[in-house]
Specification:
three-stranded antiparallel sheet, 342 residues, single chain, globular, alpha+beta
């Protein structure tokens, strides 16, 4: 026998709309989705590395890939908190979440590696520890141990610039390979790029008029491996600027710029500064990779070379003086190794 619903009830069931997610649910969903992508991103980096010869260069590529994973998670969390504000169930928890997920992905990588295989922890048995980690994440009180295996965002390389940009039009991107009519490489729009090595450790960009510091590999203030915090209140466990106004008052200015601008000043200029994001992006060469910049900034780089004998570009972030509007506690940077902007 066929049973039917009363007409009124049937109409109600068919016409009831799906309940919209609350702002709190939307924020939580966005963060969970970003966390999922972060874990997959790190494991993909390890997967690519596992198939490589696992040289120092391969390890550097894996680390650069992991950094992109980290930066994507930070931006996604900042965007979710900016959009949903106080409705978010938690705030300021990205570092603790990142530390926890990094440990999890490291465990999985270890379990699938060559002998001796490291067994994946029994996460069911460790449920209480997991809950404790989540509580730390919600409270935003991660300790150094909580994020010891995660990347930090408090440091980057300094690159000095002096002068005022004089742009009569946009500059070429450097891309020369055409990918069909109308593509960048086919059109090559913008002013032609031209650089002059001044012989004093600086390079002048004839297109913009800016004078750039060269980097060395000699342990000096110009060394390509030096890294500095953007603000004084940041640390590995609290990479955001933690005071009102988010001042750029960390070692990037108090150590790096101070050294360049101390009499007699580097290359005779006493007005060195950190470039803004647009100025920094002008050094990207989209035709090049590893590094993604012009030859003037990566030539004859070898151990012990100075800024007058070489020009070096290092894997990793170079600071700009511009902050990220969705979360002003973070500053923009450019990775000149693969043209990734963070």
């Amino acid at each position: 026998m066929t049973r039917t619903l009363p007409l009124a009830l049937a109409a109600l069931l068919l016409s009831s709309p799906t309940q919209a997610a609350t702002p709190a649910q939307s924020c939580e969903s966005a963060k969970l989705g970003a966390a999922s992508k972060f874990s997959a991103c790190r494991l993909k980096a390890d997967s690519i590395y596992a198939k490589s010869a696992q040289t120092a260069a391969d390890q550097a590529k894996r680390d650069a890939y992991r950094t992109r994973c980290d930066d994507a998670l930070v931006k996604a969390y900042a965007a979710a908190e900016l959009r949903h504000g106080v409705s978010c169930p938690s705030a300021g928890d990205v570092d603790a979440v990142m530390g926890y997920l990094t440990r999890c992905s490291t465990d999985v990588t270890g379990a699938t590696g060559p002998p001796p295989v490291v067994p994946v922890p029994d996460y069911v048995a460790q449920l209480f520890a997991c809950n404790a980690s989540l509580s730390i994440a919600r409270a935003g009180t991660a300790t150094a141990a909580d994020v010891a295996s995660g990347k930090t965002f408090s440091s980057g390389a300094g690159l000095g610039v002096t002068g005022t940009a004089n742009l009569n039009g946009l500059l070429e991107t450097g891309e020369t390979t055409p990918y069909g009519p109308g593509s960048d490489g086919a059109v090559q729009a913008g002013s032609e790029r031209s650089f002059i090595d001044n012989g004093d450790g600086t390079v002048t960009d004839r297109g913009s008029g800016l004078v750039w510091e060269k980097k060395s590999d000699d342990g000096s203030i110009h060394d390509k491996d030096d890294r500095y915090a953007w603000c004084a209140t940041s640390s590995p466990t609290a990479p955001q600027c933690a005071v009102a106004g988010n001042p750029m008052d960390g070692p990037i200015t108090t150590v790096f710029l101070a050294a360049l601008n101390t009499e007699p000043c580097f290359a005779g200029h006493c007005d060195w500064r950190i470039p803004n994001r647009t100025e920094l992006l002008s050094l990207l060469n989209l035709q090049a990779y590893e590094p993604s910049t012009f030859p003037a900034f990566h030539a004859s780089c070898s151990e012990g070379c100075t800024v007058t004998s070489c020009s070096c570009t290092k894997l990793g972030r170079y600071w700009s003086s511009s902050t990220y509007s969705a979360s002003p506690g973070y500053a923009w940077g450019v990775d000149f190794w693969d043209s990734f902007t963070t």
